[in-house]
């Protein structure tokens, strides 16, 4: 993981964590980075001072950024503990899902199985499923991904 200090055209500065520099470049090129303060998608890397420690000296804990959450770990409470930048990204993801997929609500698991077995037309769907239903879908070979459902950007 790599942490970049970023800046929007309105000179708001923030940081972001990325798998590698290529991932950052791809997200930047596609306009998927946004300022958490104003939503501006013209985001550039800001100048950063390198962290240089003397031999055997470790920077105090307060100066080191917190590492990103482990993949597959518990999702943080969406009301606190998650950066504005992450909320903006999750809001964009929610908007894309709502615009391009059909909401099956609590019938998601049933409809996903129907699609998987060729009994319903193949299409993007979303909805809710219990942990038991998600496990059952995975056992059947259905790719399922649970997404954190944050408030809409316009709310």
Automatic annotation (TrEMBL):
Q: What is this protein called?
A: DUF1178 family protein
Pfam families per record: DUF1178 (PF06676)
Read off the InterPro entries from this record. DUF1178 (IPR009562)
Annotated region (Disordered), positions in chain = 58-80
